[in-house]
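Deviation from plan, reported transparently: 2-acetamido-2-deoxy-beta-D-glucopyranose complex.
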Amino acid sequence: MILSLFCASLLLAAGSNASPCKLQSGNWTSSSTTGAKAALNRDGHGSAAINQLGIQAKSQESALPSSTSASNPGPSLTASGSSGSSGGSGSSTSGGSGTSDISGSLTPASGSCPQGFLNTVFNTNAGQSSGFPSATWNALTEYGIDSWIGFSLETLDKQSDYDLSATQNSQLSGAFNKAQIPIVMDHTYIQSAVAMLASNPPPYLELYNEPDFSFDGLTLTEDPAPSASDLATILNAPHPNTKFISPALMDANGPWLGQFFQACNGCIEHIDVIALHVYNPDPQGVLDQITQLYATWNKTIWITELSPATSGCDMSPSTMASTYINVLIPEILKLPYVEKIFWNSGESDSTPINGAPASCSPSLTNPDGSSTAVLQALGAACGISPSTATS
Ligand SMILES: *[C@@H]1O[C@H](CO)[C@@H](O)[C@H](O)[C@H]1NC(C)=O
Ligand SMILES: *[C@@H]1O[C@H](CO)[C@@H](O)[C@H](O)[C@H]1NC(C)=O
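Because the crystal trials were delayed, the predicted structure below was used instead.
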């Protein structure tokens, strides 16, 4: 495990796709390396617990640029007692305003959510599931999941810390790879990202993952001013086919983003979407974070990490379906500026997340790739079930 952690640091520092660690640490699917693999999840799991405790709640004023004064449309949960009525019936569950700042062409999919609204996240332990990626992706798309975020700029077959066997690698192709939204993880990937924009431009590119937080000491933290200077290389590169997602902060409503935009000479004009990570078992708390972020930036929001898993979560997956998803999703759908949500996680994840009890599992799929009650509820909240889904 120490070797594995050491290697992980090396890989991250070098921004390398090379895989010396596999040789040294042996079989990463063996249980003896579970801790190391958990540590390699390059996600917001650790951070969410901090959000949940409210340790970093404020400093909003310092984050406010002087020019923004958007009013807060102020959703409320007045309808929450009755809004969870979809129950998989396929009936309309929302006002479903499909408007978007980014694209006027979004149309309702087979369900009542705008096309592309439902998305997911694959963490670095996804490769442990026998059903990943093929069976997993089949189930997810059946329930309306459109695209996914991995903690990678590269496709997963080039990403050693996803630990996919050769067999699984061969399944990584076509629609699955196309559905990935790449992330420039940190400054070590700037040049690769510029090359990608020139040679193989993705429709969307996320610029940094939680630069305000080091996941288990493994991911890099980046200060706002140097980040502005580093990311200018990407922001100034020709990118006619690519839209940019803002740095996704551990604490999106904290000071980092404001300091970044102050330092970057108006680069906010080149940012199409503001990212939000939020882990909170209280739907109203999630909505508060969303509306605060919109009030600050007046921009389209993608919730690029979402789940109730924190130490404060005491839901089973079925309770999560009825008291969280069925309440929260219809309320988010009333906010026309929230274009996409990414539920974490899409894979079967038995790793305790954010200190959440094991009973609070947000996994959308089982190890064999079949759907969980959570995925079924997410689809139902959008009026999608496999019998109504068109593909
Ligand atoms: C690696 O782990 C897998 C799954 O537990 C097991 O089937 C395989 O035998 C292991 N290989 C080695 C070399 O330990
Ligand atoms: C918010 O952005 C829209 C364009 O997306 C603009 O029309 C509107 O004036 C902005 N509101 C404020 C308060 O800046």
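The chain is about 35% helix and 10% strand. We consider this an acceptable substitute for the interim report.
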